[in-house]
Write a structure and sequence with these properties.
Structural class: alpha/beta
Radius of gyration: 19 Å
Number of strands: 9
Helix content: 40-55%
Strand order of the largest sheet: 1-2-4-3-5-6-7-8-9
Low-confidence stretches: 314-322, 327-332
Strand content: 15-25%
């Protein structure tokens, strides 16, 4: 057994993209010759660590042919560079800044893989507002994106959703700074075990996710960046981009939740009527919007089913373990 084979996935690194350091997780295929490359674009909060179980489970089904690259959003997480030194930001990025740099991330990945003897398919997998990022990448790089998998897509009228109406007061500038300062004070005053206990108070978080929150997200600048991006989402993500889906809808495979406070069923109905060229599904399994904290393995099977046509190398799961997806799949 080689030393490389002993290294557990994902591989963790960071790299400079358009002047920004990007925290990145990488699941390379065993063959070294990927037939497809998937860029995972997280929701908000955008800590790529939340997606480790999901991506690991998905990668295990395509380990000989799929590379997965996941990137945290700017400012959402504490991390160190490849020398072990803390990466610090001097400003709070806007949603537009985040999107522009994610496009640059895609460009760099695409350029690196384009030099391969046989160019692999370039795939995007967005979750929640990460689907909005995927839209923006497709808008300007449609000739280079082969398929987009949109999970619980928060791509319209976020401020008008039940959760948006409930949480919007937290996103005001003064409140954001107050919340960030309060977090820093608590971290300074309380022992790490107490901070972990506070993070674990959310019933939706697994033990690992609670530890990730406590160690990587409960930091004033991170809280400020997360809330700033959320505020911009409320202000800037309004009407559905109908023109995009009418023209390029065939590139999208979309999966909606049946009880989603961020993406109401009315959004699914509107997408069904608008994107008549793509595949638009409704979950019948009750998986939550924040599936990465509780249903990573189940959603990996859902996306694996979506990937079968792209990869042509997937072994079907047993019928009694396969998740149910319901919608109107339209031939592309």
């Amino acid at each position: 057994m080689s030393f490389v084979s002993r290294i557990a996935l994902p591989q963790r690194t960071c790299w400079a993209v358009a002047g920004e350091m990007r925290e990145t997780l990488f699941w390379p295929c065993k063959s070294g010759k990927a037939r497809a490359v998937m860029l995972l674009v997280p929701g908000n909060p955008g800590l790529i660590d939340f997606y480790i179980d999901f991506c690991t489970a998905l990668h295990s089904l395509f380990s000989d042919s799929l590379d997965i690259i996941g990137v945290s959003h700017l400012g959402h997480t504490r991390f160190s560079d490849n020398r072990g030194l803390a990466v610090k930001r001097s400003s709070v990025p806007s949603l537009a800044d985040q999107v522009a740099n994610m496009v640059a991330v895609f460009d760099q990945i695409d350029a690196d893989y384009r030099s391969a003897a046989q160019r692999p398919k370039m795939l995007l997998c967005g979750h929640s507002v990460g689907c909005y990022f995927s839209e923006k990448i497709v808008e300007c790089r449609s000739d280079r994106v082969d398929r987009v998998f949109s999970l619980f897509p928060a791509v319209e009228d976020i401020a008008g959703t039940p959760r948006g109406r409930q949480l919007w007061p937290m996103f005001y500038p003064g409140v954001r700074q107050l919340a960030a300062g309060l977090v820093d004070m608590l971290v300074w005053l309380l022992p790490s075990a107490a901070i972990l206990g506070l993070a674990g108070m959310s019933r939706s978080l697994s033990e690992d996710s609670a530890r990730t929150v406590a160690e990587k997200m409960l930091h004033g600048p991170c809280i400020n960046s997360i809330l700033k991006m959320a505020a911009d989402e409320m202000d800037e993500i309004g009407d559905l981009n109908e023109e995009l889906y009418r023209c390029l809808g065939h590139k999208f495979v979309m999966y909606y939740g049946s009880n989603d406070g961020w993406v109401p069923t009315a959004h699914h109905k509107r997408m069904m009527a608008t994107n008549t060229k793509g595949k638009v599904y409704m979950c019948q399994n009750g998986y939550p919007h924040s599936f990465v904290t509780t249903h990573s393995a189940e959603m990996a099977l859902v996306v694996a089913d979506m990937l079968r046509e792209e990869m042509g190398c997937w072994e079907p799961v047993a019928v009694d373990t396969a998740p149910t997806i319901v919608g109107r799949p339209v031939a592309t």
